[in-house]
Inverse folding.
């Protein structure tokens, strides 16, 4: 893994790339379509950077034991930023007609999952065995636009994951590079969003997604500075503390 100094440099470099995307979008903004496109541009950059760096950082490490059809960790709570929620909502709207032809109603699945897990803590949520609503017929149907939280969770032993899910173990050999890079990428994007005057905190995915699906103008409202997903906000870390950390990193000498 890179030294802390390298991580800080990476954070600032990626923050700059996100800031450039936001500045470019502000000059050509043309309503909801532009706001949705902005989310896609931000997340495309985020995911490409994540994938490239994880590939480099995991060289020589044990192989991952995650694969198609393995959804053991998909009972965990997922948090996401506004661009991730909006990107996913746009994707769901696009694929819904095709999925409905096969009897898959993602909107209904999100509603059912939210009804079961709303207000539950992490352990209670796992104990409920409520799977992610995007698992349909054994696969994740939104895999290509999955949030950074999902990309950052990868295991070297799926059997350990299964034991943990059933309460038989606590230790799971997660890939540390995946988790670390997820944090760096997401925090760099949050920092740039904050500087741009946009809502930048994290939200519980199911609750935020229902808000986005119910409000076709959610992306445009977010672009104009409204915290559209405030009701779904998750405060695992104090926002003021996060903001102060971002400012300290940006103030470091190059």
């Amino acid at each position: 893994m890179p030294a802390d100094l390298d991580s800080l440099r990476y954070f600032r470099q990626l923050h700059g790339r996100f800031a450039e995307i936001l500045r470019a979008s502000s000059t050509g903004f043309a309503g909801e379509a532009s706001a949705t496109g902005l989310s896609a541009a931000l997340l495309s950059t985020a995911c490409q950077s994540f994938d490239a760096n994880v590939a480099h950082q995991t060289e020589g490490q044990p192989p991952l034991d995650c694969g198609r059809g393995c959804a053991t960790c998909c009972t965990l709570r997922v948090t996401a930023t506004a661009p991730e929620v909006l990107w996913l909502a746009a994707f769901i709207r696009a694929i819904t007609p095709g999925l409905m032809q096969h009897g898959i109603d993602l909107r209904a699945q999100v509603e059912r999952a939210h009804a079961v897990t709303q207000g539950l803590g992490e352990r209670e949520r796992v104990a409920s065995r409520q799977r992610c609503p995007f698992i349909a017929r054994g696969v994740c149907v939104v895999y290509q636009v999955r949030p950074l939280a999902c990309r950052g969770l990868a295991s070297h032993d799926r059997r350990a994951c299964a034991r943990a899910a059933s309460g038989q173990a606590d230790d799971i050999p997660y890939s540390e590079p995946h988790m670390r890079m997820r944090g760096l990428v997401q925090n760099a994007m949050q920092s740039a969003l904050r500087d741009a005057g946009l809502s930048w905190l994290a939200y519980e995915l199911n609750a935020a997604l229902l808000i986005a699906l119910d409000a076709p103008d959610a992306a445009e409202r977010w672009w104009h500075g409204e915290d559209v997903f405030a009701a779904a906000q998750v405060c695992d870390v104090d926002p003021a503390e996060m903001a102060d950390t971002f400012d300290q990193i940006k103030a470091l000498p190059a």
